[in-house]
Design goal:
InterPro entries: Alkaline_phosphatase_core_sf, GAG_Ulvan_Degrading_Sulfatases, PA14/GLEYA, PA14_dom, Sulfatase_CS, Sulfatase_N. The protein is α+β, with helices and mostly antiparallel strands. A ten-stranded mixed β-sheet has the order 7-6-5-4-8-1-13-14-2-15, sandwiched between helices. It has a six-stranded antiparallel β-sheet with strand order 22-21-23-28-25-26, with no helix packed on it. Strands 17-18-19-20 form a four-stranded antiparallel β-sheet, with helices on one face.
Length: 677
């Protein structure tokens, strides 16, 4: 007979009320700015200033004065990771708050429908925000336009303007289609590209963002807004704007929305794809590292990239100045980041190489790599009065931490399904910062570049199935993974950012923890198969003396429409039981934490029923999710478990007088059902 050992955590009450009473601060506006393919090394404050200070003529550099100023006015996060090293999965993880071990969009699944569940948009809607998505989407799903199943307006956004299809974001003049043909731009459900003569998308999205902010402040000044501003630059094609940036910035200057078909923004004139910034147009460099030979001009593709990068710098400054002009800068949190590492794409006849400016910074790897250069992204947070100037947050974090961060700022706990943690303690330097789960998995059938700046062992390295995990302060990476037994390369990336000194032989205990944890935290997806999908999930080792024969139960006074994370929240009551049917039937949220003991390796099926909203977790992965979608019917899930102890958490919302009590059962293979008793 299976030995059942359990501990339990329960929570009940009216969440939002008590949580809201603890958080008596005005909800700030939130602007999340996501760049496309901007590398860690593309910004002055993160790396380009190092090259500039060296002033070596064989090392060309970029300048980003406004983004550097933004960093000085707020915080930088030097060890912030993208959830994935390419566009669509990275954005899906940001929007859902899920790692690539659980998000429904993985690998290179461009235009796949974003899961119909909690998103940045709908959780902030429920927190009282007006929500807008502007720019590149690429997660709409298959369907006849404009009725895509995962249109932004169906995923929590009140307003949308931008490119719906992923590939459309590769052309920056939607009407003219200079290199990739004409593209479609949508405002909510209306296609408007016929009106967008000479509209460079970087300027267009900036003008629309400014119009939205200004109009919202005029019409709804008492309602906070959330803006997901997803630029399609500096991603290829490396197209140039029509002209210099308009004088001034903010409310009266910079790019402006004109609203007249054929002249929709004030830079929609002149010649498309034409304007090189003067500081780069005549730039030369020591191409052969020989000071005795004449310098040569920068190749055109790099003049273009530098100009695009500088244009971004001006666009962000324009938005920040608008916040100052509207006197809402202290009431607005702005996050600037990127979806993945630097790219080697130009979509021009002339190839772009990331080592010219060293856009991967002090790391090895680029877009589509799980080494640091593919996942570390430049991240800046500005919130005057709340985030101190010149703050440096050195702890590791990842892009799916933003959903819990924003709900925390809005005064609510995040949905329990979220994989991230709130970064608010680090940003404000108040409270205890929880450790982030830093994890990524990805497949790409290519190889790393052979740049001389990369370590020899990384040049031309085969990618295929890749995986990355942080355990303690060490990063584990696997390339060309064949099985769950493949060893991780283990690196101290703080002291070895290029990942040249593999510590695997010295860290056998860390190696095993990494191998176990990646199996305990992820959910397999048949659309993105992995060689470790069918491996038995390992149990916890060495805990026999610490487990109890009872379930611990805690109740919480929380009132969100979703089942929330409860870490750091004081329970209103605590009890212990040895059976679920003995849990008190008070109205409120109930969270159950326990263990089952699997006597042998095999397939175990779990059954959960009896509550209107339920969520169950085993180890760090979802077991059953009936929170956003609630059927009231019995839910089940089958997993392959290795013998040993496996922790279970169950969250559910209880209603006094409910005739159905929560039931949680499991069985091994075709055996009888068992339960805690």
């Amino acid at each position: 007979m299976k030995k059942i050992i359990a501990m339990l955590l329960l929570a009940t009450g009216n969440i939002g009320l008590l949580w809201g009473q603890e958080k008596q601060v005005a909800k700030p506006n939130i602007i999340f700015i996501l760049m496309d393919d901007m590398g860690y090394g593309d910004l002055g404050v993160f790396f380009q200033k190092i090259r500039q200070q060296r002033a070596a003529r064989n090392e060309p550099w970029l300048v980003t004065p406004n983004l550097d100023r933004m960093a000085a006015e707020g915080a930088i996060l030097p060890q912030h990771y993208a959830a994935a090293p390419v566009c669509a999965p990275s954005r899906a993880s940001i929007l859902t708050g899920l790692s690539q071990g659980r998000a429904n969009v993985r690998d290179n699944q461009f235009d796949k429908a974003l899961e119909d569940n909690y998103t940045l948009g709908n959780v902030l809607q429920q927190a009282g925000y007006h929500t807008a998505a502007i720019g590149k989407w690429g997660l709409q799903g298959v369907g006849e336009a404009p009725n895509w199943p995962a249109h932004p307006l169906k995923r929590g956004f009140d307003y949308y303007f931008g490119y719906m299809a992923h590939v459309d974001g590769h052309e920056h003049y939607p009407k003219e289609g200079v290199y990739k043909g004409p593209k479609k731009v949508w405002e909510n459900y209306r296609e408007i590209s016929d009106d967008l003569d000479k509209c460079y998308t970087g300027d267009l999205f900036t003008a629309v963002a400014k119009r939205y902010i200004t109009t919202h402040q005029q019409e709804q000044p008492d309602q906070p807004f959330f803006m997901y501003l997803a630029y399609d630059t500096p991603h290829a094609v490396l197209e140039l704007p029509t002209q210099a940036y308009p004088e001034g910035k903010g409310l009266k200057g910079g790019v402006q929305w004109m609203g007249t078909p054929g002249n929709m923004i004030n830079t929609a004139s002149g010649k498309v794809d034409s304007y090189l910034y003067p500081q780069y147009a005549q730039e030369t460099y020591d191409h052969d590292s020989d000071a005795t030979t004449p310098e040569v001009p920068w190749p055109d593709v790099y003049k273009r990239y530098a100009s695009i990068n500088y244009r971004i710098d001006e666009q962000i400054a324009d938005i920040l100045q608008l916040l100052t002009d509207l006197e809402i800068d202290e009431q607005t949190l702005v996050v600037f980041t990127s979806d993945n590492g630097t790219s080697i794409e130009s979509y021009l006849d002339e190839r772009y190489e990331a080592d010219f400016f060293q856009g991967f910074g002090p790391f090895d790897g680029i877009k589509r790599d799980l080494y640091e250069g593919g996942l570390r992204v430049p991240t800046i947070v500005r919130w005057p009065g709340s985030v101190a100037p010149n703050t440096v947050i050195n702890s590791a974090s990842i892009s799916y931490d933003w959903l819990p961060t924003f709900t925390d700022i809005a005064g609510l706990p995040a949905p329990v399904r979220s994989d991230g943690v709130s970064l608010l303690p680090s940003l404000t330097q108040q409270g205890e910062q929880k450790e982030s789960l830093v994890y990524a998995e990805y497949f790409h059938p290519g190889v790393m570049p052979t740049y001389s700046l990369f370590a020899p062992q990384h040049r031309g390295k085969r990618r295929n199935q890749m995986q990355m995990i942080q355990v303690d302060d060490l990063i584990g990476v696997r390339y060309d993974v064949q099985s769950a037994t493949d060893d991780f390369e283990i690196y101290d990336v703080i002291n070895d950012p290029r990942q040249t000194k593999n510590l695997a032989l010295q860290k056998a205990d860390i190696q095993q923890r990494m191998k176990d944890r990646v199996l305990q935290l992820r959910v397999s997806d048949t659309s993105a198969a992995r060689p470790y999908d069918d491996v038995f999930i390992p149990g916890l080792q060495g805990i026999e003396s610490r487990v109890s024969e009872t379930l611990d139960v805690k109740f919480y006074a929380l009132n969100t429409t979703w089942l929330p994370q409860v870490g750091g929240i004081e329970p209103t009551a605590v009890t212990s039981v040895n059976r679920l049917d003995l849990v008190p039937q008070d109205t409120g949220l109930v969270v159950v934490r326990g263990y089952i003991y699997a006597p042998t390796d095999g397939a175990y099926t779990f059954y959960l029923s009896g509550a209107s909203q339920t969520f169950a977790r085993i180890h760090e992965r979802t077991l059953i999710d009936a929170d956003y979608h609630t059927s009231g019917e019995e839910m089940k899930s089958t997993l392959k478990l290795a013998s040993g102890y496996h922790p279970i958490e169950i969250y559910y919302r209880n209603v006094r007088g409910n005739s159905q009590k929560l039931q949680f059962e499991w069985r091994y293979e075709d055996g009888p059902r068992e339960s805690w008793k």
